[in-house]
Amino acid sequence: MNGSASRNPRGATRSASRQPAGDLPAFDLLIRDVLVLDGRDAPGVHGDVAVRDGRVVAVAAPGALAGAAARIVEGAGLALAPGFIDVHTHDDLEVIRHPAMPAKLSQGVTTVVVGNCGISASPVVPRHGPAGDAVPDPMNLLGADEEFAYPRFADYRAAVEAARPAVNVAALVGHTALRQNHLDRVDRAASDAEIAAMRAQLRESLDAGALGLSTGLAYASAFQAPEREVLALSEELDSHRHAYATHLRDEFARIVPALDEAFAVGRHSGAPVRVSHLKCAGADNWGRSREVLAALERGAHGHDVACDCYPYAASSSTLDLKQVTDAYDILVTWSEPHPDQGGRLLAEIAADWRTTLLGAARRLQPAGAVYHCMDEADVRRILSHPLTMVGSDGLPRDPRPHPRLWGTFPRVLGHYARDEKLFPLHTAVHKMTGLPAARFGLRDRGLIREGACADLVLFDPATVRDVADFHDPVRPAAGIYAVWVNGRLAYDGREVAGERHGRFLAPH
Question: Alpha-carbon distance 329 to 369, whole Å?
Fold first, then answer.
């Protein structure tokens, strides 16, 4: 890989120089003359970085590292950061189904946290009876019913390790997954016996390497779960090893009480709280981000609380009848009974069918949608907050995905840090690397320092940007020159490498 010209087109850094044969080289990889953004929220410094056996072994001033290297990358004018950590994904089955993971590698992501919003691929016990093997909405966002083939978390971990995805994988256990295993229907509260059964399955999963528990209390599959049910489950979490991540019960008018509920779970269990995709959803909620962030800060007094956010003013999920409104555009991304309507606005479909928005939404079910439900000023305020990490919340199975699936991380670097100057470049990198690694206990990830795992991304600060948009969402980012996972080249700026070197990451 020879990246001596920093303004070359994407892919110009593909061919690597090699040291002559002879004695064994001191380093497997030497990246020279780069702006090192080490993940600590400190301004970058120019230097060289050396890698051996999958770890960073030296960080030094340019030209200061002596010894031969098997591969040398000339990075003049480029920046080197730790591989980005996507703390909010729904890649549970994607890392097995399509383990090359181009949507993530092409934007510099080297680690994904799966199992968010209460929905996880495991542990899921196939259901039998009148409903067949159907999993409840929104678990269908992850895959088809027959793909839920991992009744024990250990089965899922083994499948990930066998697939050897191109990115590292850490996994939460979904509350809704547990509910569908032990309740005859999910639109009610669990009994004491059902809670005990869920606790036992959660405990087994945590012992097998799960990162923690996630909930999606806004969804019909979990909305009827009272706080006591979640409190009881949270008692299985080890406050030093496991996180509680939550898609709040309400992101609209009652978002502050929903935050208070999340903090109560954290205080009860001792587990750190991670608020998923924090937003002020709904036109009536626009402008409340200061109030919401003040509540987040109150919750963080004396307790480990953080949130994630994606850099867009539109959300994406299943087409939820409760969210149907004429206050903003709703783009239908897929529909099982009417696939030809994917890519059209709900209002246009309703007009063609001569029915109401709600009537059209009912006919489209089950379906997916993008909701342009946020105000840009709120997004900027939440994204820039010191407690905020970056997560894509991308939906890889969506035939017309929200552009966040391919564009989240370069959008933060290019649009918000460089162009809008919302925060410095090193702060943007910190929100994607050192901060999430610390918040989720991903040891030896998220930093460029001696001994750290060599998950690295080489990019051009002047040209990095998201290319995916709502009209053409499946497009790789510009300005990403190379990505390494555990010290091995995973993406060269144009193509994903043939060999994959990701690992399953269990908490320590």
Answer: 10
